[in-house]
Amino acid sequence: MPIASVTKVMTAYVILRGHPLRAGEHGPDITVDQQAADESVSGVESSVPVREGQRLSERRLLELLLIPSGNNIARLLARWDAGSQEAFADKMNRAARSLGMRRTTYTGASGLEPTTTSTSADQLTLARQVMRDPTFRSIVAMPDTVAPDRSGRIPNSNALLGTDGVIGVKTGSSTPAGGNLMWAATAPDGGGRDRLVLGVVLRQEPDTSPRQGLEAAFTHSSALIKGVRQWLGATGPGGR
């Protein structure tokens, strides 16, 4: 099934695997090209306003990829890393195979294409892997980020962030995909120890508006998170 912008989790994973960042590092500066600038004024997809020639660090571009979900930023990172979006998609698919995600196909870096498809089980496999990266984990937990022109702050698209222990991860919505959410939350077990809980909700109310689908994804994910937190709180130490 299409997964929309949840695709960007794999985009970030491939970028960080090829260009890892340690705590406090921002990585190399990347020059915004004309294509990314032109796409930033698109009225038909999620984008972030950038201008040609602007230089932004790898860390800043990852924030703009994951927090406001900039499709133009996804494709810019793909071209920077692999030369073209097609070559980058090949890297995404190789990464998926290496993780055992055998029911997943990536055809672009942003998730705009409905031909990018996956399952909740495969995306959960990716969530387990990528949340081990401290840089990724710190970015998806940010409530907002500075706009590229420093005119203000851009909010995180994840409406559940900061509620019920939610610390990430990524939204995705489109008419064919419906509403999608990969989520991560911390929850105390019966012994008071915080546990990391991960989940993926896909294809909520497809063929409606993206907003309606995403609201359904938030509603059902919130119910799951509350249920897991309640269950864990009733268990003994270690989740047994």
Bin the helical content: 25-40%
Question: What order do the helices and strands follow?
Answer: HEHEHHHHHEEEEEH
- Number of helices, counting only DSSP H or I runs of 4 residues or more: 8
CATH topology heading: Beta-lactamase
How confident is the prediction overall: mean pLDDT?
A: 94
The shape is globular
Strand proportion, as a percent range, falls in 15-25%
Q: Which sequence of strands runs across the widest sheet?
A: 5-6-7
CATH superfamily placement:
DD-peptidase/beta-lactamase superfamily
Q: What is the makeup of the main sheet?
A: 3 strands, antiparallel
Radius of gyration: 17 Å
How far do the termini sit from each other? Answer: 34 Å
Q: Structurally, how many domains make up the residues? A: 1
Describe this protein's structure.
With about 240 residues, the chain is an alpha+beta fold. The chain has a single domain, classed as DD-peptidase/beta-lactamase superfamily (Beta-lactamase, 3-Layer(aba) Sandwich). Helices cover about 40% and strands about 20% of the residues. It has helices at about 5-20, 35-40, 60-65, 70-80, 85-100, 120-130, 135-140, 210-235, and strands at about 30, 55, 145, 155, 165-175, 180-190, 195-205. A hairpin with a 6-residue loop joins β3 and β4 (about 155). α3 runs antiparallel to α4 (about 70-80), α3 (about 60-65) packs across α7 (about 135-140) and α4 (about 70-80) packs across α5. The longest helix has 24 residues, at about 210-235. The mean pLDDT is about 95.
